[in-house]
Amino acid sequence: MVTGEPKQRLIAQNRALKLKLYQFIKTSHKEKGWAISWMCQLAQMSRAAYYKWLNHKPSQREVRDQAILERILEIAKTNNGLFGSGKMTLALNNNLVDGEKPIYRRTVARIMCVNRIYSSKTKYKKQKRYTSSKPDQTAENVLNRDFNSEHPNEKWCIDVTEEKVPGTKQKLFICGVLDLYDRYIVSYSISNRNDTALVNSAIKKALKEFPDSHALLHSDRGFQFTRRSFTYMLKAQGMTQSMSRVSRCIDNGPMESWQGIIKEMRAVLYPNVSSFEEMKEAYEKTIHYYLYHDPQERFNGKTPAQVRAEAQENPEQAPYYPIKQSKKYRDYWKTIADKKNQTA
């Protein structure tokens, strides 16, 4: 009896041991002529159980589990085991053929657990240093943490993040523009310098892609976003500028979250990078993977690119995907409100 493992794996492993024992009895009886009843007695199992296995035909569940396992292994092979059971379930259901039944997460979790298929994704620890500066221009927090958007190109977030190139003293900087409607990266720029040219390049690419956009653009108070020229450029485009409060990174939460996600994904998909050029290419491929192959639970298993394509196909009837607030946050704010009411 195998112990010390998750329940589903215990069941599978104990069953596998029995199957090996059945196979041993079958082989020994055929090649050495040993009596089946004698071997079953030594193994402390009934002859009926052995003969049931001998005449067993795979059930529909076993056949389906094997088919799902093969698809899980195929997906895991393409992304170095990036997905856990949740993302894997979304990815499987996003590629169902017509008439095929949906696959439930508990089924995927069981199959992955039994076959020791793990996500190789690890939590990225953000280390951001804040430096004091004297901004030329500042803006109010117009976004005010309202991260919901009913249509594409209504609300954009922008920020710069960095990562050190392994084995070198170089750093890679990414400036991304994120659409809050579909978590689609409207544009991005990559450089070895954190300067105004990096931000300007990302904004110009976004406006070239969507020249008619008058989106609200939210950022932190980094020096790249507080320049007069940057503010004038947004006004000329008819865009509203919004800024996070001082030392309140949560005001730009979706952008901060995306930066952590894309770094985690890059580390799994392309772990062996040793130069700036290799890391730049790795991030370009990772962002493409995120847009076209990373299913999102909020979007019912669709990728950001799929959601955007649907919205562009029929702009007036673009689906609305409101953010589902976590229960722990609802409970937290309820506790705060209750305390305020008690002291009032």
From TrEMBL:
Matching entries from SUPFAM superfamilies are given as: Ribonuclease H-like
- Where the record annotates domain Integrase catalytic, the positions are 148-312
Residues of the region (Disordered) are 304-323
**Domain of life of the source:** Bacteria
Pfam families per record? HTH_21, rve
Query: What is this protein's function?
Result: Involved in the transposition of the insertion sequence.
- Please name the NCBIfam families in this protein's record: transpos_IS3
> What's the protein name?
IS3 family transposase
What is the species of this protein? Streptococcus raffinosi
In the record, what lineage is assigned to the organism producing the protein?
Answer: Bacteria, Bacillati, Bacillota, Bacilli, Lactobacillales
